[in-house]
Structure formats: C-alpha cells, structure tokens
Amino acid sequence: MKTIHSARTGNACRDEEIARNNRLFFEADQLDAEAYKILGNEYIEPDTWRRFSEAKKKADEKYQEANQDWMRIRKMMINS
C-alpha cells in the first residue's frame, strides 16, 4: 500500500511541476504578445524599437527559463 501512495505522491508532484511549467510558458507567451503590441501599426521610431527590444528580451528570457525547466522535468520523469 505504501508503494501505491508513493506513486500517487510522485505523480501529484510531477503534475504540479508540469502545471508550474505550463504557467511559465503562458507567461512567456503573454510577454511576447505585449512586446509585439508595442510595435502596433505605427511608424517605428528608435524609442519604440528600444521598448520592443527590451520587452522581447524579457519574453525570450522567460521562454528560455520555461524550456530549461521543461528539460529538468523530462529528465526527472525519465529517471523515475
């Protein structure tokens, strides 16, 4: 019985990790969308491009964080 409980606990932990990772990707998607909103349909002046570049960098960093986290989760799942 303890083995079943441990498996359930392990699955719950894995599910929580995956849910957290999904939130990271969602946040990255939101940041990316916000970056492109800065561009809009207006003439792109240097300040607009600078603000877009800064916002896009934040989105890219969040995507990188989410991808690294997903690789960690995959490794954990493969090794368990």
Write the layout of secondary structure elements.
Layout: H1 2-39, H2 46-79
Helix pairs in contact: 1-2
Tell me what the structure shows.
With 80 residues, the protein is mainly alpha-helical. The chain has one domain (4-79). It contains 2 helices and no strands. Helix 1 (2-39) runs antiparallel to helix 2 (46-79). The longest helix is centred in the N-terminal third of the chain and has 38 residues, at 2-39.
Summarize this structure as a short list of keywords or feature phrases.
80 residues, mainly alpha, 2 helices, 90% helix
Main sheet properties: none
Number of helices: 2
H/E order of the elements?
HH
Radius of gyration using CA atoms only? 19 Å
Poorly predicted runs of 5 or more residues = 1-5
Number of strands: 0
Helical residues, percent: over 70%
In a few lines, what is going on in this structure?
The protein has helices at 2-39, 46-79.
